[in-house]
Amino acid sequence: METLSGVAATQELVGQWRRGGLSVGLVPTMGYLHQGHVSLIEAARAENDKVVVSIFVNPTQFGPNEDLEAYPRDKERDLKICEREGVALVFAPTVEEMYIQGAATKVGVTGLSEVLCGRFRPIHFNGVCLVCSKLFNITKPNKAYFGLKDAQQFFILERLVKDLNFDLELVSCPIVREPDGLALSSRNAYLSPDQRKAATVLSRALKAAKNECEKGQRDGQALTKLIAEMVGAEPLARLEYAEVVSTENLSQVTTITSSVLVAAALWLGKTRLIDNFIFSPPVS
Ligand code: AMP
Description:
Largest sheet: 6 strands, parallel
Order of helices and strands: EHEHEHEHHHEHEHHHEEE
Bound molecules: adenosine monophosphate
Mean pLDDT: 98
Radius of gyration: 19 Å
CATH topology of the largest domain: Rossmann fold
Number of domains: 2
Strand order of the largest sheet: 1-4-3-2-5-6
Shape: globular
Number of strands: 9
Distance between the termini: 51 Å
């Protein structure tokens, strides 16, 4: 396994692979790898000759009062996991390498970035779009793998890839969960034992909403009310939002007639967690 921090060296190596006819799968991460990341690496391994994992805690996607400094990091452990999973190259740049002096270019997807999490994290998705555009240009992947844990991110990146003609395919992978339902996240490491117990309310509330959908509930407001009530019953949790939106354009849905994303975010102390599910009503 190669580990590189330089942009030019990375472009050179993946350029050689691509010219030699090898396919490249990219898995962008912020490190502190867990089984969710590993599932993306496995998917990439199954479909590509070479897998590149990027590890970069991207400052441009954190707001001024967010957890950039506190974000958990363990590069040595991450490298061991990548090695074990058969990754060909880890690209782990410094902030200075990624954002050269004088950098002035912005990338963003309007509309989709302003709803759901974007309402509460106004610069977040522009930072994601910028760093992913750069990672696509640096690692030249045939395919790039993202988790549906961050479903809004995936929809935004699909738009970005179309709009800017990036010559690659995006692949979405299912959410990996703890046995009690909590979606894996590097941020789960922040939770105290009590908060960790309380955190299951998010997946439980979404599961209850999903069950209602499967039983025929089509009223978006009834679903968000159910989620709000369940989260409201957990004293340690504070709901940030629960919404039912169209997977087409992330606009709010009052009556479900086609595929929807049901997404929610909550706070446990200073830790913000997100989760979601996608529901497509059966065609009758
Ligand atoms: P992060 O390191 O949190 O920025 O995540 C890197 C990638 O892993 C993103 O595409 C995430 O959506 C994905 N990911 C994070 N957690 C999970 C999970 N529990 N299941 C599936 N994918 C995940």
